[in-house]
Amino acid sequence: MAENGQEEVDPSLEDQLLAEDEAEESTETMENGHSDDYQKLIDHGIDKKVADELIKIYKTGKLSQSDLDDRAMDALKEFPAEDAVSVLKQFCDSSLEHVANKSAFLCGQMKMFRQRTKIQGMPNSAAKGPDETKLKEILARTGYTLDVTTGQRKYGGPPPDWTGVSPGSGHEVFCGKIPKDIFEDELIPLFEKCGKIWDLRLMVDSVTGFSRGYCFVTFCEKEGAVEAKKQLDNHEIRKGKRLKVNISIANVRLYVGSIPKSKSKEDIKEEFSKLTEGLVDVIVYGSADNPKWKNRGFAFLEYDSHKSASAAKRRFTSRSLKAWGGEFVVDWADPLEEPDTSTMSKVKVLYVRNLTSDVTEELLKEKFGYFGKLERAKKIKDYGFIHFEEREDALKALESLNNQKIGGMEIEVSLAKPPTENRKKEQRKREQDRRGPVAMYPGYDDYWCMPPGRMPPPPPPPLSGRGMRRPPPPPPPPARGGYDPYYDDYYPYPEEYDYYGAYAPPPPPGPLRGRGRGGALPPPVSESLLSVLI
């Protein structure tokens, strides 16, 4: 008898009683028609406590043995028994109605549990989540699906009555500064007012279960994205909480170097279509002064989606993809931002490419000046810009001179595209960087080449194998005919000229590298619209 009047319990007796309780639970499990499932769990090496907890969930109908794949079973086997039971209880308390892959969701919750235990003071309770009543009403009204994973909540994609192809570039908006406790039950009604939604993808913190503060919304029509930007940018969703909405540009273009210059656009497309999926176009730039060069040693590959482009890039970088006896240098090309129709309707500057070395500015003024009065003309390498005083005259010149021969080559003429707001912000940042005491610039984009005389070329990298070609230097500025021809974005004019106007200035030089810092870095990998988080 203990001093406080209570009987002392023999530790060995306590262990025996616990073992008897577990045995009773296991016997009850077998008597309730789950003996086969229970035995499968035990045979797989699952702890008895974990197996008992799983059988309890099976009885609720939220999970079945067939829902668990080998990955989930192995994870439960390796997880500490007490922690696994805690995770399974949390799993059972979760709303699984919109979870398509329950094994992946369970593995995600185990990962979240581990992360929470590493963070001091992190609450173990999950986020409240959306209003299920409102959410069910929305899904019943629209017929859309909702797929929930540990990192994302995806509404739609495609809509139930959709029969066409997936929406392309310009249909998607990025919505940021979303309060962390707001979910799709509040966001869908907002964006529905702007146009028919293709899908809405809300990013979720896998540790807390709360929103990460941003989502992507794809519309069936481009007008929906434009309207969302107009209506919801700076919209006050809660008192003092305003949304930030921008049209997002999916990165679907890759820069590929080390291509034999004898290969034409058709050759390149045919070869890479065999090696990658989703290739829709190839952009190459030949040499106006050397017709034998069908490309300049590089090309831009356009894919039908960012997913296809990412898969192709992984294949290229894994060195498993070879053609014409060699490997390739691959990087992201900057996503294109197309000016809106209203902006393009005011442009009176023409972009001209395929100019040979014997074509002078005087000759350009003579040819284009026939159609109307010019403000100025500027030739840069094998392309140039023609400024008209009147837009009507520019359009007449475009119609008459496009695909006509000047200097022995057919020229391509198109309207120059002014920079978007994002490009103007880059311009202001570059100007600030130029004025700084130390210019540590972010490097090339995939459209820029250093003007001659600025810096010595980078040293050639070592060969990677017998007979392998060295990667080429960063590509020269691509011809802008139909591919984002920003006006004089890449070469500076003399200071006495005011050629920048409303267009972007030349970018800064790239950072130096190596001993003595004598070379420039290759093009950097562009950020892929946070979709790596999806």
Automatic annotation (TrEMBL):
Residues 480-489 have a biased composition (Low complexity). Residues 470-479 have a biased composition (Pro residues). Residues 420-436 have a biased composition (Basic and acidic residues). SMART domains: RRM (SM00360). Residues 171-250, 252-335, 348-418 form the RRM domain. One of its GO terms (molecular function) is RNA binding. It is found in: Cytoplasm; Microsome; Nucleus, Nucleoplasm. Residues 410-439, 458-489, 502-534 are annotated as: Disordered. Keywords: Acetylation, Cytoplasm, Endoplasmic reticulum, Isopeptide bond, Microsome, mRNA processing, mRNA splicing, Nucleus, Repeat, Ribonucleoprotein, RNA-binding, Spliceosome, Ubl conjugation. GO terms for cellular component: cytoplasm; nucleoplasm; spliceosomal complex. GO terms for biological process: mRNA processing; RNA splicing. Gene3D superfamilies: 3.30.70.330. This is RRM domain-containing protein. It comes from Octopus bimaculoides.
